[in-house]
Amino acid sequence: MSNNWYMLTVVGKDKPGIVASISEALFEAGCNFGEASMSRLGGNFTIMLMVQYAGEIRRLEDIVATVTRRLNLRCHVDAIEGHLHAHREPDVRISVYGPDRTGIVAHITGTLAKAGLDIYDLESDVGGSDEKPVYIMHIEGHALHGIDAIRQALAADQAPGIQTHLEEIDTIIG
Amino acid sequence: MAILEVLTIPDPRLKRESPPVERFDASLRDFIHDLEETMCSSPGGVGIAAPQVARFERIVIVDVSCKPKIKNHGRLVLINPEIIEWQGMEKGREGCMSVPDYTGNVIRAKTIKLKAFNESGELCSYDCEGYEARAIQHEVDHLDGVLFLDRLVSRRTDLFQRKVYQDKPPLKPE
Fold first, then answer.
1. pLDDT tens digit sequence for A7-38
2. Which of A143, B104, B112, B151 sits most deeply, having the most CB atoms within 10 A of its CB?
3. Residue B96 forms contact with A (CB below 8 Å)
4. From the list B67, B94, B158, which residue is nearest A174 (CB)?
5. What DSSP line would sit under B62-80, residue for residue?
6. Tens digit of pLDDT for each residue in A40-50?
């Protein structure tokens, strides 16, 4: 298998069979999959997928396009410097929730960045109802200046109405 | 003393159930020394189970005393361990010497009571909580051929989400 890694991005209205159709076409073209994140966001299905492929990027784009055109999805391929086994362990997890309004992510992540948080993973959702939407976000990362720095920054810079909860991630190796 | 070879997935022997120890003799104590040395040779290793080094007997070592501020019993040699009570549950991150380059979230009981023989063949009882309880549950699972991979919960699964948890031990191997 070649060392050519590509990041495949696919977005479009969700429907059953997207993952199966795309992965089958790529498998038949000799692709190998690496790490991936796929989820339904607001009725869209989104795919970020590391693909190892020996051929040219154009050819890979064509292979994917045959499927995405049929399923009415948009796709994009980037050549990347990909590596497997490059995981980093997060040491802190921050959960955030509160009445939805604009600016929550900018406020919280700004505070966290100043306190030295390197974000590895962020996922967020809007729950509640149309009348009372609730924003919920989970962040995992590495506290470059220690977890106390993050804890103090969050305590000192509370956004009105927003609850934050910090939890150390102490991974068991057994 | 020797550092033993650790089995890694997909070695099918990791899925074997191990029978109890029957002889408490010098060869058992020699093996426990080697097992402990193997555990200590792994960066961050706080526990190990005999089947991880291809000895299929119910022997576990847990030592979380390296972690500051964590309630613990120091070095625990647990032979034929039996968890007899579980209380509460919480999510935590686990990794394993037998599963390199991957960690995941697992729900475990917060506090446990267990009975086990020590290396001299005396039956002892322990009340354990938090990190130490998690490490013990992880290691005891190995004795039943269960890996933390068999108990993963999604990274998106969290305790904010509406879930009905029953107050009974869901974690005992079937």
1. 999 999 999 999 999 999 999 999 999 999 99
2. B112
3. yes
4. B94
5. EE-TTSTT----SEEEEEE
6. 999 999 999 99
Q: Are residues A46 and A110 in the same domain?
A: no
Domain that holds residue A127: 92-168
Residue of A nearest to B131 (CA): A172
Exposed / middle / buried, residue A42 (Cβ in 10 Å: 0-12, 13-18, 19+): exposed
* Tally of structural domains, chain B: 1
The question of ipTM being above 0.90 is answered as no
Taking the C-alpha atoms of residue B87 and residue B92, their distance in angstroms, rounded to an integer, is: 15
- Give one DSSP letter per residue of A109-168, joined into a string: HHHHHHTTEEEEEEEEEEEE-SSSEEEEEEEEEEETT-HHHHHHHHHHSPPTT-EEEEEE
Distance CA B141, CA B145 (A): 6
**B132 annotated active-site:** no
Which residues touch A116 (CB under 8 Å, ≥6 apart)?
Answer: A143, A144, A145, A146, A149, A150
B32-69, pLDDT tens digit by residue? 999 999 999 998 899 999 999 999 999 999 999 988 78
List chain B residues with pLDDT less than 50: 159-166, 174
pLDDT given at position B70: 84
Mean pLDDT of chain A: 94
Here the CATH number for the domain that contains residue B57 is 3.90.45.10
Q: Mean pLDDT, to the nearest integer, of A91-110?
A: 94
List the single residue in A with minimal CA-CA distance to B70: A170
CA distances to A9, A53, A82, A134, A157 from A110, in Å: 27, 38, 28, 20, 10
**Are the CB atoms for B38 and B32 separated by under 8 Å?**
no
Domain boundary among A80, A108, A128: A80
